[in-house]
């Protein structure tokens, strides 16, 4: 991984059940062992986690390839990698 390119954690999104009003911290570097969420693995690198607060309770598809254009949600970019 270069300093400015995130690691591809997996080439498929992560389906997560979220709770309305709860804030989640999406991993932007791709190194977290708690995908799709941050575990602090980015420390010392150029990436920081992105806060996402759920507006409704239900299923959401979080990006795991880390190259989506609609962070933190999947937009299908992984199909082109």
Task: Tell me about this structure.
With 81 residues, the chain is mainly beta. The protein has one domain (1-81). Helices cover 0% and strands 22% of the residues. It has no helices and four strands. The protein has strands spanning 14-18, 23-26, 50-53, 58-62. Strands 1-4 form a two-stranded antiparallel sheet. A two-stranded antiparallel ribbon has the order 2-3. The protein is globular. The protein starts with 13 loop residues before the first strand and ends in a 19-residue tail after the last strand. 25% of the residues are buried.
How would you briefly describe this protein structure?
This protein has 81 residues and is an all-beta fold. The protein has strands spanning 14-18, 23-26, 50-53, 58-62. The chain is built from no helices and 4 strands.
């Amino acid at each position: 991984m270069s300093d400015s390119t995130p690691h591809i954690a997996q080439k498929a999104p992560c389906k997560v059940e979220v709770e309305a009003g709860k804030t989640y911290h999406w991993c932007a570097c791709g190194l977290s062992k708690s995908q799709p969420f941050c575990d602090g693995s980015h420390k010392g690198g150029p990436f920081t986690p992105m806060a996402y607060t759920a507006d409704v309770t239900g299923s959401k598809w979080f990006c795991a390839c880390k190259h989506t254009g609609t962070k933190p949600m999947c937009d299908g970019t992984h199909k082109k990698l």
